[in-house]
Amino acid sequence: MSDLHQKITALKEHLQSVIVGQDDLIYNMMIALLSGGHILLEGAPGLAKTKAIKTLAGCVDAKFNRIQFTPDLLPSDITGSDIYLSGPAKFEFKEGPVFANFVLADEINRAPAKVQSALLEAMAEKQVSVGGKVYALPDLFMVMATQNPIEHEGTYNLPEAQLDRFLMYIRINQPNAETEKRILHLVRREDLACGADQNCWQQEKQTHQKIHVEEILAAGQEALQTPTSEAMENYIVELVMATREPEKYDEDLKNAVRFGASPRATIALDKTSKVSAWLAGRDFVTPEDVHKVAHEVLRHRIILNFEAEAEGISTDDVISKLLTLVPLP
Known about the structure:
The chain is an alpha/beta fold. The chain has 15 helices and 13 strands.
């Protein structure tokens, strides 16, 4: 086990000790971080979505910015703009909040398409174009966009082509009674320890030894070098092809799926399964690694027919069924 693997494992364990009951979220965040991708996170308010990304950013020697999406937000509020300086009589570019290593795009579906596109273009190209000039974003650049599944009034759904830019689409549910009690006890301890000190939680978050950006990037490169056998490559391709031609496996699915996953899904499954194997301490990819990330990688890349949605069939249902039907290598 390499030093980088030990540091990433320690980081994951620290996050699990701070963010109670969201082990799957933390696992998928680590997958996306090392894969160099972005996350779309859906969950009800109060499920530690913001705390998770802030805690992760606090454990890395990196810059974190939060953008609260609202209907009156402008693209320049995200990317930045040229500001006129009267003294030297020239324009100077002022960076927007997207110029950070970790960006929390809170309630991204509350802003219109033009604003969403400004962020998604930066995610895809790792650069911002303003006034005819191109400004590069950091090598470590991770966006975690959140959306509330409960409130739909005044929201703008992300188009499928833009959804495809996200490496993973994660859904989190309400905690069970046991986890709820653990959360209660954790908050009590934090309140008693901090008292009226507003900066206490921030200081507590930084007790974990910070990891440098270069170490995160090096760990990602090491993880992505995990070998994948030809049999596993064929399995990943066949699984993605099954989303496009589901009738080959189940006639009922033919009437449920309108469009299957794009080639980005194949690339994403390859990367995330490699990282999954690396996190598990293995030097080879298994079908279990693919299954661990399949729902998060594919659920936003499959478009269902109206009839399937009317019958209550979800993309998760389709993915689960295909995972049982596509032969294992």
